[in-house]
Amino acid sequence: MSHYKVKVIFPDGGTYVDDIEFDTYDDARAHFGELENAYMTGVETLHLSNPVDYALEFEKLSFEVIKID
What we know:
Strand order of the largest sheet: 2-1-3
Largest sheet: 3 strands, antiparallel
Number of helices: 1
Number of strands: 3
Structural class: alpha+beta
Oligomer: single chain
Radius of gyration: 14 Å
């Protein structure tokens, strides 16, 4: 049975592959939504703590679901 992982692609081209394995493609996609929400919350927090150094700019994250066997 195949499993899936989420690969997050940041606006600057950097990537992150999450260690969690999912049984379905849809579960992996849903997990990306949680990761994206955490990223946006982090951007907001940095902006609130120091708006001069951290602009409130949300660039969309991209993702890829990786099938592993």
